[in-house]
TrEMBL record, chain A:
It is found in: Cell membrane; Membrane. Its main location: membrane. The chain crosses the membrane at residues 12-33, 53-73, 85-104, 110-130, 171-199, 205-231, 243-265, 271-289. This is Probable membrane transporter protein. Belongs to the 4-toluene sulfonate uptake permease (TSUP) (TC 2.A.102) family. Pfam families: TauE. It is a multi-pass membrane protein.
Length: 304, 267
């Protein structure tokens, strides 16, 4: 079933895009991540222009996170105060990201930057997750003793001024730390079309030392608002949001996410994390190899 | 009554349009041959199901009385060139730097056609010499792209070849030798495929009549490619009311996400 995309200016097979959305949605429901880190590269491989891919993938992440946010609200799993600080940072970050995007586009280095950032980010986070999940599996099997539970924020975070109380997170820290974290994920959202969940969640646990029961809900809350803001920034600056493409992705992903969430309820969390870590590392390796291989296209054309 | 009169006038006009060249050709012996071209579609509308279009270009070759008819030694050839709107573009070239491929050099072009298809009755290099091909822009190696810099000729050539190769592989530039059929030396027809990736705008279909290495006649027809219906509405909304467009995209994603959650809770 061929469908013409009015902004990307090309015709795609609608079923392939819906299936792609469903696959990513399934994974995002299972692992609790937005899945933007898979959507954008896959769309580019399918032939969608990179800018349109990044701009339209952000709205898919919005759709995937909505039902999660509602679910966490119902069981009081969102720290709205902390989330608000993160969202404020995220919105600042998305404007910063838009400026960076235009700058890199003018220099002709946007594609390389996207690829290198993906490799570094996915490689490091995937590596950390792999190590952590293998340890967790060995603990549950009784191979090694459980490490002592520490929940402390990073010393750098503790040194920041203007401390505030975040009751739901169980923290007394400076709001500057989550604000800066929000700015960083906002930049990533604009540049890479990702929600930033897989950066945010480890950072909230290991850097801020937040109470784990509100980590996922609060990160989803931040992702919802920041991807919505990113869609707005793309719509008004790059004008590259393809609503038809976004709609097709959403159709697949919202359905996939619900099915994925049911799978996740049955599976053991440390095995899920192991699978996610392996997947993230595979994507990183594939993109990294792509940087070193001689590309199919030595020349690229852009309108000026 | 008025409508019938209008149709009659239209018919009369068409008759004149066809007869006029015949009359000119007949009244001036020794004058140049005339091409009467037409296209199957003057407008190509891009709608949701658009996957490309096939244009049929056809017409008549009117030889003046003095001109001998086509034979094996002096054949008449027809070349059809379809061009898309020109674009101002920047081409970037990747180079391997520190182990990874990054964009290094670049070159700007002021007027590169977004689409270029040349169909001919015989391979174009057998019909005319290089100079004529450069004048009329016949063939992928004869495009006049006007580089917007003073880069040395060999660098410009390298970038031009890169552009032509890139667009040829995505079906935007191509040569179709033998795609023009000529019947009895008077009627010609050619099919040209327009892929779905073309930009909107005014396309031109130029037809050339070639004999003995010379371009004897030429004629141009315009074809408008535009988005229609929903596609035009979306493209316009994205450009003109981008804020509302963005809000709609966000609302769509929130509604779909929320709706799916509600449905899943019921099941």
């Amino acid at each position: 079933m061929d469908l013409y995309l009015p902004i990307a200016n090309l015709s795609v097979n609608a079923l392939v895009i819906v299936a792609l959305g469903a696959g990513v949605g399934l994974l995002s429901g299972m692992f609790g991540v937005g899945g933007g880190f898979l959507t954008t590269p896959l769309l580019i491989v399918y032939g969608i222009p990179p800018t349109v891919a990044a701009a339209s993938a952000a709205s898919q992440v919005t759709g995937a996170s909505v039902s999660g946010v509602f679910a966490y609200f119902r069981r009081d799993g969102v720290d709205v105060k902390m989330g608000g600080v993160l969202v404020a940072g995220g919105i600042i970050g998305s404007f910063l990201g838009a400026w960076l995007f235009r700058l890199l586009q003018a220099l002709g280095q946007i594609d390389t930057t996207i690829a290198v950032t993906y490799v570094l980010l996915l490689g490091s986070i995937g590596g950390l997750m792999l190590k952590e999940s293998i340890e967790a599996i060995r603990v549950t099997r009784g191979a090694i003793p459980a490490p002592p539970r520490r929940r402390r924020h990073h010393p750098l975070v503790a040194s920041l001024p203007f401390r505030m109380r975040f009751y739901r997170s169980g923290l007394y820290i400076s709001p500057l730390a989550p604000l800066l974290l929000g700015v960083a994920t906002g930049v990533l959202t604009i540049l890479l079309g990702i929600g930033g969940g897989f950066v945010l969640v480890p950072a909230m646990i290991y850097l801020l030392g937040m109470a784990t029961q509100v980590v996922v809900g609060t990160s989803l809350f931040q992702i919802l608002f920041v991807t919505a803001a990113a869609t707005m920034v793309h719509a008004t600056t790059t004008k590259a949001v393809d609503i038809v493409l976004a709609g097709l992705l959403l159709l697949g992903s919202v359905a996939g996410a619900q099915i994925g969430a049911r799978f996740a309820a049955k599976a053991r969390p440390e095995y899920l994390r192991l699978a996610l870590a392996i997947m993230v590392l595979l994507v990183a390796i594939r993109i990294g190899l792509g940087l070193g291989w001689r590309p199919d296209e030595i020349y690229t054309v852009e309108l000026s | 009554m008025g409508e019938r009169a209008g149709t009659a006038t239209k018919r009369w006009r068409i008759a004149v349009a066809f007869a006029a060249p015949l009359a000119i050709a007949a009244s001036n012996p020794g004058s140049k041959p005339v091409l009467v071209p037409d296209v199957s579609q003057r407008e190509i509308e891009i709608a949701y199901s658009f996957t490309g279009a096939e244009l049929l270009l056809f017409g008549a070759i009117l030889l003046p009385p003095g001109e001998p008819r086509a034979d094996a030694r002096h054949p008449i050839d027809v070349v059809v060139v379809v061009k898309g709107p020109v674009q101002s573009i920047t081409i970037r070239e990747k180079e391997k730097i520190a182990g990874i491929w990054v964009n290094a050099e670049r070159l700007g072009y002021r007027s590169a056609p977004s689409f270029y298809a040349i169909a001919s009755s015989r391979p174009i290099r057998q019909l005319v010499d290089d100079r004529t091909r450069a004048i009329y822009e016949l063939g992928l190696d004869s495009l006049q792209l006007s580089p917007a810099s003073s880069a040395p000729a060999n660098v410009q050539d390298r970038f031009t070849r890169g552009l032509v190769d890139l667009r040829a592989r995505s079906g935007l530039y191509y040569e179709a030798p033998h795609a023009v059929e000529i019947t009895d030396g008077v009627l010609y027809r050619a099919r040209v495929n327009i892929p779905a990736r073309v930009p909107v705008g005014r396309f031109t279909a130029e037809t050339f009549l070639i004999r003995d290495g010379k371009v004897l006649g030429a004629a141009v027809r315009d074809i408008d490619v535009r988005k229609s219906g929903f596609e035009r509405f979306v493209a316009r909304a994205a450009q003109r009311s981008s804020f509302l467009y963005g809000l709609t995209a966000v609302a769509l994603s929130v509604l779909l996400g929320w709706g799916a959650g509600q449905i899943a809770r019921r099941i």
